[in-house]
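Morning, I've got a small favour to ask if you have a moment. I owe you a coffee for this, so here goes:

…
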Amino acid sequence: MEVRILLAEDVQMVRGALVALIELEHDMTVVADVSSGAEIVPVALQHRPDVAVIDIDLPDLDGLSAAAHLHERLPSCRTLILTSLDRPGTLRRALATNVGGYLLKDAPPAELASAIRRVAAGQRVIDSELAIAAWHAYDTPLTPREMEVLRHAASGAAPGEIATSLNLSTGTVRNYLTAIVMKLGARNRVDAIRLATEAGWIP
């Protein structure tokens, strides 16, 4: 049975190489490839792939958020996340998003093909090194609202813009940012964003 695949990767050369590698497999075909997270759902609804192979770091919409939207709109399509980042916190986000697989980009081609087949068959595939790291990772000390504020700050939004987006006062947003810096033991807001990103709590 042929596995129909949608590939999402923003670097054109890498995307072309992945398409070529996948097409070498006798039981796989790439029915569509896209370069941004925002394209995934509409293209998937058009082509109805069995598996979406998604780079975690995509423009417009990150890979995990796109996978979550895809799971809601087209639950028959399973997802395999590719990442070059060894962040256990991100793996935990991926598991919460119900992705079918999570694989490092430097995995051998045969491992990628095997992962696609297993995900298509309904199995969950997790890179063993990432799984061990995630087991020892600790949860974020931030509340869901603080995480929301921090994600907006990480995208470059100023406190006033965050306040407008979240229907809060600017003073409340500043208080959240101060609490975030203190909870993470960061030097400042930029350092807090760095720490949260490295931990995989935000994309």
